[in-house]
Design a protein that fits this description.
The protein is α/β, with parallel strands linked by helices. The chain contains five helices and six strands. It has a single domain, classed as Ribosomal Protein L13p, Chain: A, CATH 3.90.1180.10. Helix 1 crosses helix 4.
Length: about 140
C-alpha cells in the first residue's frame, strides 16, 4: 500500500516574494496573496502545517477598488463598550492607515485559527514602493488574474 507523504513546516523551503499591488483590484490580488501565504501553490501543500512562503506587498496605498466601494464598503470596529461601534468607509481607512485594506482583505481569506495567525505573520505590507527586506533577496512576483 502506498502512503501519501505529509510535509512538516520544519522541512519546508520558504521563499520571499515581493508583490506590487499598484493599480491592482484589491480582492483579486488578496486572494492570490493568501494562496501563496498558505502554500497552496506548492506540491508540498499540507492543510495542517504552515508550508507557505513570505510575501512583501508594496504600494498598498495605491490599490484599486471597483465600483462605488470607496464610499459604500464599510469597515466596523467595536470597542466592546456600550455604544462603541465605529464605522469607516474604505476611503477613510485608506487615509488613516493605507496598509490596512490589504491586510484585512488577506486576513479574511485565511482561516481563523492558531495556524491562520501564524500564516499571517509572513505577510509584510508597506504603503510605499520601498521595504526593509532586501537582505532576504525577495523575488518579484507578477499576479495574474
Amino acid at each position: 500500500m502506498q502512503t501519501t507523504p505529509s510535509f512538516s513546516a520544519e522541512k519546508t523551503q520558504r521563499r520571499w516574494y515581493v508583490v506590487d499591488v499598484k493599480d491592482l483590484v484589491l480582492g483579486r490580488a488578496a486572494s492570490q496573496i493568501a494562496l501563496i501565504l498558505r502554500g497552496k501553490n506548492k506540491p508540498t501543500f499540507t492543510p495542517h502545517a504552515d508550508t507557505g512562503d513570505f510575501v512583501i506587498v508594496v504600494n498598498a496605498g495605491k490599490v484599486r477598488l471597483t465600483g462605488k466601494k470607496w464610499d459604500d464598503k464599510m469597515y466596523r470596529h467595536h470597542s466592546r463598550y456600550p455604544g462603541g461601534l465605529h464605522s469607516f468607509n474604505a476611503r477613510m481607512v485608506m487615509e488613516r492607515h493605507p496598509t490596512q485594506l490589504v491586510e484585512d482583505a488577506v486576513r479574511r481569506m485565511i482561516r481563523r485559527s492558531p495556524l491562520g495567525r501564524q500564516i499571517m505573520t509572513k505577510l509584510k505590507v508597506y504603503a510605499g514602493p520601498s521595504h526593509p527586506h532586501a537582505a532576504q533577496k525577495p523575488e518579484p512576483l507578477k499576479l495574474t488574474y
